[in-house]
Amino acid sequence: MKREVRVRFAPSPTGPLHIGGVRTALYNYLFARRHGGKMILRIEDTDSQRFVPGAEEYIIESLKWCGIEIDEGVGVGGPHAPYRQSERKDIYLKYAMQLIEAGWAYYAFDTPEELDVLRKEAEEAGKTFAYNYEVREKLPTSLSLTKEEVEARIARGEQWVVRFKMPENEVVKMDDLIRGHVEMNTSTLDDKVLYKSVDALPTYHLANIVDDHLMEVSHVIRGEEWLPSLPLHYLLYRAFGWTDTQPEFAHLPLLLKPIGSGKLSKRDGDKMGFPVFPLFWTSPTGETSRGYREDGYLPEAFINMLSLLGWNPGTEQEVFSMQELIDTFSLDRVSKAGARFQPDKAKWFNAQYMHNMSDEQLAPLMQPILKAKGIEVSDAMAGKAAGIMKERMTLVTDMWDLTSFFFVAPTEYEEKLTKKQWKGDNPAMLAKLRGLLEGIEDFSKENTEAVVRAWIEQNGYALGQVMNTLRLALVGAGKGPGMFDVTEFIGKDECLKRIDSLIANVTPVE
RNA sequence: GGCCCGUUCGUCUAUCGGCUAGGACGCAAGAUUUUCAUUCUUGAAAGACGAGUUCGACUCUCGUACGGGCUACCA
Fold first, then answer.
1. Which value does ipTM take for this structure?
2. Alpha helix positions (H), A282-358
3. Which chain B nucleotides are covered by protein, judged by CB under 7 A?
4. 20 to 30 A from A213, CA-CA: which of A119, A191, A260, A450?
5. Which three-class secondary structure state does DSSP give residue A387?
6. Protein CA at A197 to nucleotide C1' at B56, angstroms
7. Catalytic residues of A
């Protein structure tokens, strides 16, 4: 049976999406596009306690910035709407009841507090408490209580949950697209809560399986942290009688901290000096976190870097456009071990992308930066300035420092360069050079360079001496492109003005 | 603690029984250069450990160690 590929990214709106989540979304997206399938965005907000306002919008904006397109789901709609689980709450109770009737689940009346007590007791006795076949008949459940008692308790308004009746001592055989065959004995598993009466909401496990089934999801691609609950999910498909359309599973390796141990967490970024989120985030309590976008990364570079964290094409190619990723992505080249996130490599990728941009592509990046400085120039000029300096750029946020001298005359002069150049014959030499420049008709960089080089040779100057003194006047610092890129860009009048300014305002060192 | 997953240069990784173990980031040295960069060349740098299978093991099996995940009426 050939089934349409349908994958979903199903985040929980409990905060900003971190880069591990972005990578999961990316792999889902690449897989969907690779196979001509659909990408679904489902919001799993079944935990009313942990809901964070703004998180959903953040997730959607992040995916958009990354170029991960949603075919169906929150924000775009689709045949299985709604895609927000809180808006589907009517659906789940029926399925929970179906499981109870079939003997796959039961009511439990114990409270979280009572369970905490049991857990503590077990812990003190040196054992681990597990809610499973050993205890479920001893606790107040529909397995230990009479039917009348159960109905009475419910009628009385007592809180209850539905728990899955995990079979005893059965080996569940599972297949994972990345990890291969995995087996687990059900006796080591506990009776997970599927539905709770307090808020009339399902837990992740029920909602997830029901929605994946209803939305005809063909492949579940998610983080490795879900692997331990895979047997439960297998069993749920069996309990519902949906095994014939059960999706295939792929559990992705986790993203680990750059240093230290453990998986990458939301707090790592600010501690270690790099962003862990795609976009800047302000929490409802006012705390802020850096984002890749605001830190000056290009979405293409960010995505390229993430794509290679846990996947490789099997060739030596490293720079990939989204389309190239789509064309080469495959789950069987996803690695099994967790990948340590490496901020330096993210910078390298960004630099590669900046180096390869045309002036036309650079201009829209440059314009907002110039506008913020109150500088109005044409796109052509903005792009040209950026283009001259692009090989020195790592981040978008580097652009101003690298190009400012094209647009504003130096207001101060770097001490080191001044000491080295603004002495001896150089002031006199610069005055002569000013005269030479003033007489040049064709101020294109080729012509200016030819004229100046000839003049240097005739007068027996050293190239570095002339160029660096001119650089002091025009740039004010020991940085920047070749001097004739500068002279051409700023034009003759501005050149002369800047030279005059240096001569007039800075006394030569002896 | 229990269960599960994993383990090649510092980091990301290639290798699907024949390896002088390849690439990239980072690092070091050199070259180019009017500054700062870029770029180029070169270098250092790895198969966790122990058994077994095999003519042969980084690749297969087992054990140990280490790392990671899960163990909530969170996802």
1. 0.96
2. 299-307, 322-328, 343-355
3. 1-8, 10-15, 22-26, 34-39, 67-75
4. A191
5. helix
6. 64
7. 266
Q: Shortest CA–C1' contact from A340: which nucleotide?
A: B11
Q: Which nucleotide is nearest to A229 (CA to C1')?
A: B70
Query: CA–C1' span, A360 to B27, in Å?
Result: 36
* Partners of residue A7 on adjacent β-strands: A39, A219
**CA–C1' A161–B72 (A):** 13
Closest-CA residue to A471 (of A447, A458, A452, A443): A452
pLDDT tens string A276-290: 999 999 999 999 999
Cβ-defined contacts of A495-500 (< 8 Å, 24+): A495/A437, A496/A434, A496/A437, A496/A438, A497/A409, A498/A409, A498/A410, A498/A473, A498/A474, A499/A430, A499/A433, A499/A434, A499/A437, A499/A470, A499/A473, A499/A474, A500/A434
How far is the C-alpha of A264 from the C-alpha of A244, rounded, in Å? 36
DSSP A462-502: -HHHHHHHHHHHHTSSS-SS-HHHHHHHHHHHHHHHHHHHH
- The secondary element (H helix, E strand) that includes residue A8 is strand A6-9
**pLDDT single digits (tens) A19-40:** 999 999 999 999 999 999 999 9
Nucleotide nearest to A204 (CA to C1'): B75
One-letter amino acid at A415 equals: E
Q: Which nucleotide in the DNA or RNA is closest to residue A392, CA to C1'? A: B37
Provide the β-strand partners of residue A395: none
CA–C1' A269–B55 (A): 53
- Residue A497: CB atoms within 10 A of its CB come to 15
Q: How far is CA A180 from CA A63, A175, A177, A226, A498, in A?
A: 30, 5, 6, 15, 69
- Residue A237 CA, nucleotide B71 C1', distance (Å): 22
Which residues, 6+ apart, have CB-to-CB distance to A246 below 8 Å?
A: A234, A237
Q: According to DSSP H, which parts of A314-421 are helical?
A: 322-328, 343-355, 359-372, 379-389, 399-407, 415-421
- Beta-carbon-side half-sphere exposure of residue A474 (alpha carbons within 13 Å): 30
Which residue's CA shows the smallest distance to C1' of B26?
A344
| DSSP count for chain A of H helices, then E strands | 19, 15
Q: How many Å apart are A330 CA and B57 C1'? A: 28
> Which nucleotide is closest to the Cα of A205 by its C1'?
B75
- ∠ at Cα A484 (A480, A485), nearest 5°? 60
pLDDT, tens only, A218-254: 999 999 999 999 999 999 999 999 999 999 999 999 9
Q: What is the pLDDT of residue A98?
A: 97
Fill in the DSSP letter of residue A345.
H
What average pLDDT does the segment A250-274 reach?
81
For helices A483-505 and A399-407, what crossing angle results, to 10°?
70
**Cis peptide before A82, with omega less than 30 degrees from 0?**
yes
